[in-house]
């Protein structure tokens, strides 16, 4: 495809823009300049990185439906970088929570994980992303063989856990989490439809 490489470059730029923006806002804040990190910057960064983790994760799930609907098979190459960027923002989300929000107070962090289901769901989602990130190289794909696709189906429970975490963490305005939920249900619904449509058509043809 003629524009495949330029489009991949655009993809990387778009995925890094949120990170660049937050770095810029932090620079402004530490230099006592007007910024958009609100009066509670660490809480803002926590929500910001969490939102971008889910957005990019959902974008990675959208690659396969988009490829099938447009017949553009080269789009499949976007799934790996999107998955890795989702993991990157997930690590930023966790790092902000552990380092900036709680200053390595492991007692408080452990209590959060035990007593707050939302935190448990979020941590579990990030934990499950680790094997997907580790096995995303071509070498690991060859080594795992047929086991690789089965392992990477973990992306579905990861997305579900992440969206549940998102909904449970928001206390006031649920519009953004509900948008994430709607997109996730649409993407999962499409996969269910594609998987079971041949059986349904076959049954209807014999009825």
Short structural description:
The chain has 207 residues and is mainly α. It has one domain (4-206): Four Helix Bundle (Hemerythrin (Met), subunit A) (Up-down Bundle), CATH 1.20.120. The protein has nine helices and no strands.
Explain what this protein looks like in three dimensions.
21% of the residues are buried. With 207 residues, the chain is mostly helical. Keywords: Cell membrane, Electron transport, Flavoprotein, FMN, Heme, Iron, Membrane, Metal-binding, Transmembrane, Transmembrane helix, Transport. Belongs to the MsrQ family.
List keywords for this structure.
207 residues; mainly alpha; Four Helix Bundle (Hemerythrin (Met), subunit A); 9 helices; 0% strand; FMN binding; transmembrane
Structural class: mainly alpha
H and E string: HHHHHHHHH
Report the mean per-residue pLDDT as an integer. 90
* Proportion of strand residues: under 5%
Task: Supply the CATH architecture.
Answer: Up-down Bundle
CATH class: Mainly Alpha
Number of strands: 0
Family: Belongs to the MsrQ family.
GO molecular function, one term: heme binding
Subunit structure: Heterodimer of a catalytic subunit (MsrP) and a heme-binding subunit (MsrQ).
GO biological process, one term: protein repair
